[in-house]
Specification:
binds zinc ion; 42% helix; Rossmann fold; alpha/beta
Length: 343
């Protein structure tokens, strides 16, 4: 479902993917879960900041949800934002040291090619088409903050954009550079050097994909980034989203992604993103909600029961996963949202 822009927001639901091609079976979940626990354990030992009100709307009407890997998750009853209340005071070193879990997910030649095709190419094409509907200027500079191995930048450069990426993880930076992607190794904090601020000022598009959930104070951080951006430029944000089936699975015991991923301190609701949007005076021109909640449900059953199920039967069910997921996303239960804003 994709609506054309005419003063109205472009809405899209569902992202077709064959989950089996990602190689994320129960064995993979087990390995990733162990790595996440290790990283979280290390991070939890850093002197922590105690958060006793919603980091987005500041309400103190909060409900504790669950301790997961040493971190305490809460839900804001005013805006629906999920957040950790014992955030480490310094989070950048998790990335600057290089993250083993990231390595197994992202830093592999085979996965790079697959993820580019399955994940980054559809995103690049969607964002590019949204911007092109509003703007007939030539392509300009696309800056990505927290670009990882540069999959998205690689795809947008094929669409004619000039690109620069910032990434803290040295292993990911090295991998990106080997693939000819222009990436600077830096952790973009609340204050940053001239190289970063110059790029932000010049950018026609800034993408921040799956980064905001790792920031201690996302409202303060994103407000600062936007203060450097030029009027009429575009900001693309992807964040994990609530209410979702995935969080339900995490709370039931699925030990990976969303609430479990090491370094995640926030899961954003539509309302908490709306508060950020209003605070930063952004115009939301497109929203794309998607996820894998249905597959998460299946994985949760397999993980908790430890049962051997008939592979053929599971295969037949997975053949229908995209159609079922489409409905889940349309119902407002997707685990991720990608938002395109005009500054
Ligand atoms: Zn709130």
């Amino acid at each position: 479902m994709e609506k054309l822009y005419g003063g109205k927001m472009i809405l899209k639901y569902g992202k077709k993917i064959d989950f089996r091609k990602q190689g994320r079976d129960i064995r993979w979940i087990e390995v990733t879960a162990l790595e996440n626990t290790e990283i979280s354990k290390k991070a939890s030992k850093k002197a922590s900041i105690h958060v006793n009100s919603c980091p987005i709307c500041k309400s103190t009407n909060i409900t504790p949800l669950k301790e997961i890997n040493y971190f305490f998750w809460n839900r804001c009853e005013n805006c629906g934002h999920f957040f950790v209340s014992n955030v480490p005071s310094e989070v950048s070193d998790i990335y600057e040291e290089g993250n083993q879990a990231q390595k197994t997910v992202y830093i592999s030649e085979e996965l790079f090619v697959k993820r580019k095709e399955l994940i980054s190419k559809p995103k690049a094409e969607f964002i590019n088409s949204v911007i092109k509907q509003l703007n007939d200027r030539n392509n300009g500079l696309w800056v990505e903050i927290g670009c990882g191995v540069g999959e998205l930048l690689s795809e947008v450069s094929l669409l004619g954009w000039e690109t620069i990426g910032f990434e803290a993880d040295p292993n990911e930076v090295e991998f990106a550079r080997k693939h000819g992607i222009n990436v600077v190794q830096i952790y973009v904090r609340d204050s940053f050097d001239k190289e970063v601020s110059d790029s932000l000022k010049k950018a026609d598009v800034i993408s921040i994909i799956n980064v905001l959930e790792h920031i201690v104070d996302p409202l303060k951080w994103i407000t600062n980034i936007i203060s450097f951006m030029k009027k009429g430029s575009y900001l693309v944000i992807e964040v994990p989203r609530e209410t979702s089936i995935t969080a339900f699975c995490n709370l039931a015991g699925l030990p990976y992604k969303h609430l479990v991923t090491a370094g995640h301190y926030h899961i954003f609701s539509e309302k908490s993103m709306q508060i950020i949007q209003n605070h930063c005076k952004l115009e939301n021109i497109a929203k794309w909600c998607f996820g894998n909640g249905f597959v998460d449900l299946l994985n949760t059953i397999l993980w908790l029961s430890n049962a051997q199920v008939d592979a053929h039967l599971l295969d037949n069910i997975l053949d229908k996963a995209n159609d079922i997921q489409q409905k889940i996303d349309e119902c407002g239960l997707s685990e991720a949202m990608l938002l395109v804003y005009r500054v």
